[in-house]
Amino acid sequence: MNGTNASKTSPFFHDFGVLKILELNGRKLTPEAEARIGYWCQGAAWTRDSRTVLVQCVVEKETQMFSFDGKNPKPAGAVKINGGPAGIRVVGN
Q1: CA gap 74, 86 in Å, rounded
Q2: Which residues contact 36 (CB under 8 A, 6 or more apart)?
Q3: How do residues 37-77 score in pLDDT, each as one tens digit?
Q4: Is 67 in contact with 73 (CB distance < 8 Å)?
Q5: Pairing state of beta strands 28-37 and 41-46?
Q6: DSSP string spanning the chain?
Q7: Distance between CA atoms of 77 and 74, rounded to whole angstroms?
Q8: Do the beta carbons of residue 79 and residue 65 sit within 8 Å?
Q9: Where residue 88 falls among pLDDT bands split at 50, 70, 90?
């Protein structure tokens, strides 16, 4: 959330959330990439091919989409919804 859920007068407030992508190397997680996202974003999920990540943002009332080429997440649109998304579920194989 990066402080986007805090009051604008709070010292913890930031004007954007951050999507951080981590890489698993053996048993160690290392930062791979990041992108700015909306306010009060709470859920994220990958597509099966790991080329798209979905991020749910409550204030914008949308699910933001990012394409991922293995190095950089790039905005790929958003799906507006009637309400604030607060969780996402994925189904395994």
Answers
A1: 22
A2: 16, 17, 18, 19
A3: 999 998 899 998 999 999 999 999 999 999 999 999 999 99
A4: yes
A5: unpaired
A6: -TTTTS-TTSTT--SSEEEEEEEEETTEEEEEEEEEE-SSEEEEEE-TTSSEEEEEETTTTEEEEEEE-SS-EEEEEEEE-SS----------
A7: 9
A8: yes
A9: confident
